[in-house]
């Protein structure tokens, strides 16, 4: 009984295989190949677009970083110039600070220099 079932399954498989022709199989394979080639081409184009977009964004980032660096230098230069101008013209405010805190001239000068160095490091 088992052999009869196997034979009937084998016969139905042979019948299913009989509806395919060489031309039909080759056409199907050609369609599949064209679909794969189209998909690869689309992925390649998309990848190129993403690479160009990435390069553009990286260059924009570098330019923004350069601008930021230049602006920070300018700010530091202006802060330094302002401090120098305050030192030249604003000794009265320093005297008031010294009197209020009760420190000597040397200590005050050291503290002021320390503040200037910290500000320049920023």
Task: Summarize, please.
The protein is mainly alpha-helical.
Written as H for each helix and E for each strand, in order along the chain, the element string is: HHHH
Shape: rod-shaped
- Largest sheet: number of strands, sense, barrel closure: none
Question: Structural class, please?
Answer: mainly alpha
Give a count of the beta strands, DSSP E runs of length 2 or more.
Answer: 0
Q: In angstroms, what separates the terminal alpha carbons? A: 92 Å
Helix segment count?
Answer: 4
The whole-angstrom Rg is 41 Å
Percent of residues in beta strands?
under 5%
Q: Mean pLDDT, as a whole number?
A: 79
Residue share in helix: over 70%
Topology:
Layout: H1 2-17, H2 22-89, H3 91-101, H4 105-121
Structure description:
This protein has 122 residues and is mostly helical. Helix content is 92%, strand content 0%. It is built from four helices and no strands. The chain has helices at 2-17, 22-89, 91-101, 105-121. The radius of gyration is 41 Å and the shape is rod-shaped. The model is unreliable at 7-14 (pLDDT under 50).
Can you tag this structure with a few keywords?
mainly alpha; 4 helices; rod-shaped; 0% strand; 122 residues
